[in-house]
Write a structure and sequence with these properties.
With 243 residues, the chain is of the alpha+beta class. It has 3 domains: 102 residues, Tetratricopeptide repeat domain (Serine Threonine Protein Phosphatase 5, Tetratricopeptide repeat, Alpha Horseshoe), CATH 1.25.40; 56 residues; 59 residues, Roll (SH3 type barrels), CATH 2.30.30.40. Helix content is 54%, strand content 14%. It is built from 9 helices and 7 strands. The strands form 2 sheets. The protein has a 5-stranded antiparallel sheet with strand order 6-5-4-1-7. Strands 2-3 form a two-stranded antiparallel ribbon. Helix 4 packs antiparallel against helix 5, helix 4 packs parallel to helix 6 and helix 5 runs antiparallel to helix 6. The longest helix has 27 residues.
Amino acid sequence: MRCAGLSWVLGFILAASGTVRAGTNYFQLGIAAYAQKDFANAANFFTAALGSAPAANVFQNLGNAEWEQGKTAAAVIAWERALSLNPFDRNAENNLKFAREVAQLEAPELTWCEIASTWLPADWWAWVAGVSLWFAVGMMLLPGMLRWRKSARQQALVALGLGVFLLGLPANYGAVTRARLGFALVAELPLRLTPTAEGETATKLAAGEPGRVVRERGRYLLVQTRRHTGWVEREKFGRICSP
């Protein structure tokens, strides 16, 4: 029943989801395996495709394959990574909403800078900052170097470049802090008061429950959730952006 409901809500697009540069063969193998309902192998093939060329459409299909296996946390992380690369991917967005409703999971709590960072792919913000800054610098220096007469238009272009640069700074910061978000990979994940196996358990996280990495110590991560802060084992907590 869950998969049937998922199919019409998600509207997954396997065959039409695009190509992957170096991982095309793995991607096509993943599509074929998924069509045959061999979801475990499909997930393996999609993961192999990501090794050479991470792409939003591959993460999207990887999430579908993980969901069909009942791996809610792995599916949520894959779809979150798809949205990080392509925030315009409505399929991944709808998948996440449906999965969280079914599993009764909360979405990550974002700051306003992080919300702004979701307006464009995470990597684009660095380009926006660099291009706008050099554009403004160029418009300031070129008239003098080329002995152009200064004009109001040149000053307006300098102001435009600096304005875009300054407006993009919060989004750049948000893209950096959003990379610290992650999700519990297993059910009943202990959130401990100390970074040791013997540490007292403050609470337990459900598979797919979000948290924010505050600090790292050895094989443990200090994670802050909406209600508690504590230590979890590194390998049992998957981040949106792998370190």
